[in-house]
Design a protein that fits this description.
Elements: H1 4-17, E1 30-35, E2 40-44, H2 57-67, E3 73-79, H3 88-96, E4 105-109, E5 116-119, H4 120-123, H5 130-138
Parallel strand pairs: 3-4
Antiparallel strand pairs: 1-2, 1-3, 4-5
């Protein structure tokens, strides 16, 4: 299920993890997002002493993607020490640019073991999208 392009995406996330700024938690995260156009954007977590200002790696990569003109995500790779899942805020941020959440794959890689592969829909089965907001705002 994991092809050469997916391995490249995971490698970009791993490299990006090395740039993480995590002096408070020590939990460094690297992310890489591939747009449907094939371009890849990398991000790392950036902590702040005012914890609410911390930015997750996934949202850094998504912000770079959007700021460079892409709004349709194809794949996401995360690299952490233990292959953990994204937080709920990041999952919902991914949902915004996923189109069909069943189509978008998320690779969860860590320092040991093979990467896990899940769809965004599996990770966020009840996420809301613009259709829900449009339906509510019309009423």
């Amino acid at each position: 299920m994991i092809n050469r392009d997916d391995l490249e995406l995971i490698a970009v996330a791993r490299e990006s993890r090395g740039h993480a700024y995590a002096p408070y938690s020590g939990y460094r995260v690297g992310a890489a997002v591939r747009g449907r156009d094939g371009r890849i954007w990398a991000g790392c977590n950036i902590e702040n002493v005012s914890f609410g200002l911390t930015i997750c790696a996934e949202r850094v990569a998504l912000g770079k993607m959007v700021s460079e003109g892409c709004r349709d995500m194809d794949r996401v790779a995360l690299y952490t020490m233990d292959g953990s899942v994204p937080c709920g805020s990041c999952l919902q941020a991914m949902r915004e640019f996923a189109g069909d959440p069943d189509r978008v794959l998320v690779f969860l890689a860590g320092e040991t073991g093979p990467p896990r592969v899940l769809s965004l829909a599996e990770l966020l089965p009840y996420g809301f999208d613009s259709e829900v907001v449009k339906a509510v705002s019309v009423k």
